[in-house]
Amino acid sequence: MSSLPGLKSFHDLHIWAMSTTEMALTVHVVAEDGCGLNDLIEKISGELRHRFLIVHSTIQIEAPR
Ligand SMILES: [Zn+2]
């Protein structure tokens, strides 16, 4: 996940099972300056869905410090 363009780093990653078949995730993401935030969120949630079968993700975007 850290190889995504526009993604600088992430922290506070939590993953838990909602049921025997569904997983949920929350994560704080630090975006690169000037990257398209909507695109970044879509890429991350797409990656989570395809690679980890996580259908419910909550992504908090933070500016680099
Ligand atoms: Zn944070």
What does it look like?
With 65 residues, this protein is of the alpha+beta class. The protein has a single domain (7-62), classed as 2-Layer Sandwich (Alpha-Beta Plaits), CATH 3.30.70. It is 25% helix and 45% strand. The chain has a three-stranded mixed sheet, with helices on one face. A hairpin with a 5-residue loop joins strand 1 (7-17) and strand 2. The radius of gyration is 12 Å and the shape is elongated. The mean pLDDT is 91.
What CATH calls the topology is Alpha-Beta Plaits
State the end-to-end CA separation.
20 Å
Low-confidence stretches: none
Structural class: alpha+beta
Largest sheet: 3 strands, mixed
Shape: elongated
Largest sheet strand order: 1-2-3
The rounded Rg comes to 12 Å
How many extended strands? Answer: 3
**Count of domain modules:** 1
Q: Name the CATH superfamily assignment.
A: Cation efflux protein, cytoplasmic domain
- The CATH class, by name, is Alpha Beta
Query: What CATH architecture would you give?
Result: 2-Layer Sandwich
Helix content: 10-25%
- Arithmetic mean of pLDDT: 91
Count up the helices. 1
Strand content: 35-45%
Which small compounds were modeled alongside the protein?
zinc ion
Order of helices and strands: EEHE
